[in-house]
Amino acid sequence: MTAADEREPIRLLIADDDGLVRGGLRTLLANEPGLAVVGEAADGFAAVRAAQELDPDVVLMDVRMPRLDGIEATRRVVAGGRARVLVVTTFEHDDYVYEALRAGASGFVLKRAEPEELVQAVRIVAGGESLVFPQLTRALIARSVQPGAGDGGARLLTVLTEREAEILRLVARGMSNADVADELVLAVHTVKTHVARILAKLAVRDRTQAVVVAYESGFVRPGDA
């Protein structure tokens, strides 16, 4: 038995108002090693309640649901526990998706994604060391940020060290901890420490929200390399 086999499986909650979608996701994910579907929810209220009762690691959240949409459900799930939220959506340019990211979602994946892409997205969100589909995520955030918004990152520059600012710019480009370590010739654990400090200083939960803050403040602007 390998070390990976001995790890606790990633616990998943599926929230979607379409029963066929929920069933398809359950069938796909339940057959993957290291993943365990612990529950389903048909609307936002049920998703919040199930997240509290079942303590999943990742909630796969539809954004357009009755009674309580996925944006507010995401906000409540993130505020109420340790679960991370992966938005599962039909359109990558949906304003609802960006609002869900602002509400605390750790990433998004398209419903038309290949099965292996969905599984990869779940594992990335659970691990928290890189963005889910960095190009799509950056494009969505850049498109959604109002031109000229923010203070040009002045506040961030007062709270971040020079090294932390450098790392945040690389994270905003979609780099994982390993990528940043290679770029700056640092140990991966050193990068992890810096990223953790960045998140604490920005008062955000994970790197996706850090990227949102970086763009909305003007610290990073659309089109930056």
From TrEMBL:
Keywords: DNA-binding, Phosphoprotein, Transcription, Transcription regulation. The keyword Transmembrane helix does not apply. It comes from the Bacteria. InterPro entries: CheY-like_superfamily, NreC/VraR/RcsB-like_REC, Sig_transdc_resp-reg_C-effctor, Sig_transdc_resp-reg_receiver, Tscrpt_reg_LuxR_C, WalR-like. GO terms for biological process: phosphorelay signal transduction system; regulation of DNA-templated transcription. Residues 153-218 form the HTH luxR-type domain. Residues 11-126 form the Response regulatory domain. One of its GO terms (molecular function) is DNA binding. The modification 4-aspartylphosphate is found at residue 62. This is Two component transcriptional regulator, LuxR family. It comes from Conexibacter woesei (strain DSM 14684 / CCUG 47730 / CIP 108061 / JCM 11494 / NBRC 100937 / ID131577).
